[in-house]
Amino acid sequence: MNCRNLDMNAELYRLCALTSSLVGRPFPYDNLGPTMIGRTLNHYRIVEKLGSGGMGEVFAAEDTKLGRKVALKVLPLEMALPERRERFEREAKSVAAFNHPNIVQVFSVEEADGIHFIVMELVRGRTLAEVISRQGMALSKFFEVAIPLADAVAAAHGADITHRDLKPDNVMLGDDGRIKVLDFGLAKPGPGFVDVGSQVPTEAKTREGAIVGTLAYMSPEQAEGKTVDARSDFFARDYFL
Predict the structure, then answer these.
(1) Count of domains in the chain?
(2) What is the pLDDT of residues 86-136, one digit of tens each?
(3) Domain of residue 62, residue span
(4) Which end of the chain is more exposed for a tag (fewer CB within 10 A), N or C?
């Protein structure tokens, strides 16, 4: 589905993004890449586009205040509806709720010139989609991936967060050999999740019957739009491993 060729209002953009997410393909909104390279948002100078997904585009940037490399996940302007901004900010809060060596670290969620973005740890490497061959992995390699991935998922569940979109594209094998779980854009905080800013329990608001995630890796109950919990993440993880 090519959304760029359609004269769409914001609601159609939302529907197009949802469809792209379900089939596991990046949402083809107007490409920000060429216009963002070299641009500075607050004190982050963008140097390279890393990729894109259903919730925005990801860039490598230089933090000019602290002199470090970071990743910026940018929400496109045409997708900056209140519902999308809320989900975008919830992603940042979900990841910021814990510090785990196998989960990408979030530093802040910011806005500049009307552009909303998340500042994250920059991870260089390959996704499991690039690492796992059609023949699968050798047993020794399997445990190198499966054990830290299980630890990361357990940490998220310990904070009462269900990822809801675990798949090979959302797990990175860093150049340092470390596994990193990425993209909590569809994560669902449960009633036990505490917003680190307010220290008040909160819960994600997903419409009853709404289907979110990537169809190829969904548990049966998730594909039917039913309430999901940690078991859906287990299903997805075990399926692609």
Answers:
(1) 2
(2) 878 877 887 887 789 999 999 999 999 889 999 999 999 999 999 888 778
(3) 3-121
(4) N
Query: Last residue of some domain: 121, 136, 167?
Result: 121
Asked if 8 and 101 sit in the same domain, the reply is: yes
Specify whether 132 is located in the same domain as 116.
Answer: no
Q: Which of 30, 63, 113, 165 is catalytic?
A: 165
Q: Name every residue whose Cβ is closer than 8 Å to that of residue 192 and which is 6 or more positions away in sequence.
A: 159, 160, 201
Q: Is 165 a catalytic residue?
A: yes
Write the pLDDT tens digit of every residue in 192-204: 665 555 443 444 4
Look at residues 86, 54, 82 and name the one whose alpha carbon lies nearest to residue 189.
86
CA dihedral 106, 109, 110, 115 (to 10 degrees): 100
Q: Could you tell me the strand order of the sheet in which 40-41 lies?
A: 40-41, 44-53, 56-63, 68-75, 115-121, 106-112
CATH number at residue 162: 1.10.510.10
Q: Which residue in 105, 97, 102, 44 sits closest to 74, CA to CA?
A: 44
Provide the whole-model pTM.
0.76
Residues 6+ apart with CB under 8 A from 108: 92, 118, 119
Exposed, middle or buried: residue 83 (CB in 10 Å: 0-12, 13-18, 19+)? exposed
DSSP secondary structure string, 12-36? HHHHHHHHHHHTT----PPP-HHHH
Angle of CA points 24, 146, 124, to nearest 5°? 65
Residue 53 DSSP one-character state: E
